[in-house]
């Protein structure tokens, strides 16, 4: 099998699977036909056009394009995690104090999977929806980190760490959740795919939160090393979860294998799809870790989860993240779209030329738009200063 043959597999597969759907599906586009904002690194084909009716994007759930696997890995993952949680709930009762960290983790995980699936399914509607939906996706990721921290603290922690951090853990978990979400917002709005700092910024924020969320597990290793009768093999369930989490983070930060053979993994096999699969495995690994620690190692005997504190902390985080999302949507997106109608000179100083860029506002409704929505990266304060001049 030659290298050229491998490179052609992606486009050939897409063309073959679409052959029976051409009569009812709008033609997919290449990266050259898409706004810069909607392009994925090293992915050249399989893009859905912007500006189509909502029915088109919802029905694309059942057609093949370069987001299909991203959607279905988390749609399928949603049901896998839900079924695993339902099976686990049969072993607990509402009077069991250990049910509350499990419920919190389950809610955060399922919310993450739902928001991710919706973002990948519908973001091609327009540049504006791309921004808003992926901010919702980041909100799901940071909420999942919060839920993982709750599960680690109240189901897998050592007694010493639990007593030492009992008062401070939830407030710090909320703060780092908001911090990581805010970092993702900054990176999304002010840096493009071409900026290496974008991925680094996102990873720095999420990794900081993730490391703190996993800190109760690290305390178990310290406790085990200090006890002669404890074997590290007894913590294999935690080791598996941490290893999966690390591999998952690495898969998100690199574009492999598509960066090695650009255009060959446009539909199936690119790095973000692998990241999605690993994310589901991480969730299932956490449920397994909680199951073992609660039912076998009996860590719940000395842990004290508080339903009121957990619920209030989660609600505070969600409210603050929604407020942050609304702020960025209004300031950096809606006003960018509105400025085209208020002052067209800001969009292009040479608007009289026939080849001038299409305003971002027009891209919201134009089919096959190739507008330069990278203008959304412009700083709003700079725009207002130009208007005053």
UniProtKB/TrEMBL annotation:
Superkingdom to which the source organism belongs: Eukaryota
InterPro entries per UniProt: AdipoR/HlyIII-related
Annotated keywords: Membrane, Metal-binding, Receptor, Transmembrane, Transmembrane helix, Zinc
Gene Ontology MF terms: metal ion binding; signaling receptor activity
Main localization, broad class: membrane
Transmembrane segments: 98-122, 128-152, 164-182, 202-222, 234-255, 267-287, 307-329
Residues reported in the UniProt entry to bind Zn(2+): 120, 272, 276
Pfam families: HlyIII (PF03006)
Membrane topology: Multi-pass membrane protein
Gene Ontology CC entries for this record: membrane
Subcellular location: Membrane
Family: Belongs to the ADIPOR family.
Protein name as it appears in the record: Membrane progestin receptor beta
Source organism phylogeny: Eukaryota, Metazoa, Spiralia, Lophotrochozoa, Mollusca
């Amino acid at each position: 099998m030659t290298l050229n043959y491998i490179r052609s597999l992606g486009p050939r597969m897409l063309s073959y699977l679409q052959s029976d759907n051409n009569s009812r599906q709008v033609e997919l586009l290449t990266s050259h036909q898409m706004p810069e904002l909607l392009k994925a690194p090293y992915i050249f084909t399989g893009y859905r056009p912007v500006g189509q009716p909502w029915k088109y994007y919802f029905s694309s759930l059942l057609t093949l394009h370069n987001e299909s696997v991203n959607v279905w890995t988390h749609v399928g993952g949603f049901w896998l995690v839900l079924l695993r949680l339902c099976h686990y709930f049969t072993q607990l009762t509402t009077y069991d104090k250990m049910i509350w960290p499990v419920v919190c983790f389950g809610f955060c995980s399922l919310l993450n999977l739902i928001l991710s699936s919706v973002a990948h399914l519908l973001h091609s509607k327009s540049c504006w929806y791309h921004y808003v939906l992926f901010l919702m996706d980041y909100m799901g990721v940071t909420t999942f980190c919060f839920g993982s921290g709750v599960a680690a603290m109240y189901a897998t922690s050592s007694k010493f760490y639990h007593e030492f951090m009992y008062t401070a853990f939830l407030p710090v978990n909320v703060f780092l959740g908001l911090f990581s979400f805010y970092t993702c917002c900054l990176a999304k709005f002010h840096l493009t795919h071409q900026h290496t700092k974008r991925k680094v910024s996102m990873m720095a924020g999420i990794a900081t939160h993730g490391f703190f969320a996993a800190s109760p597990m690290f305390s178990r290793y310290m406790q085990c090393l200090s006890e002669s009768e404890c074997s590290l093999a007894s913590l294999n369930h935690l080791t598996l979860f941490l290893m999966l989490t690390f591999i998952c983070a690495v898969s998100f930060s690199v574009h492999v294998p598509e960066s090695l053979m650009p255009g060959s993994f446009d539909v199936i096999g690119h790095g973000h799809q692998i990241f999605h699969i690993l994310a589901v495995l991480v969730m299932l690994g956490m449920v397994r870790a909680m199951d073992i620690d609660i039912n076998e190692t009996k860590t719940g005997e000395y842990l004290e989860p508080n339903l009121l504190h957990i619920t209030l902390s989660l609600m505070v985080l969600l409210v603050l993240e929604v407020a942050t999302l609304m702020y960025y949507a209004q300031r950096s997106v809606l006003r960018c779209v509105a400025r085209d109608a208020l002052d067209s000179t800001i969009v292009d100083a040479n608007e009289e030329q026939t080849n001038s860029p299409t305003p971002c506002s027009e891209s919201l409704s134009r089919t096959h738009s190739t507008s330069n929505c990278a203008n959304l990266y412009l700083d709003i304060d700079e725009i207002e200063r130009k208007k005053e001049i």
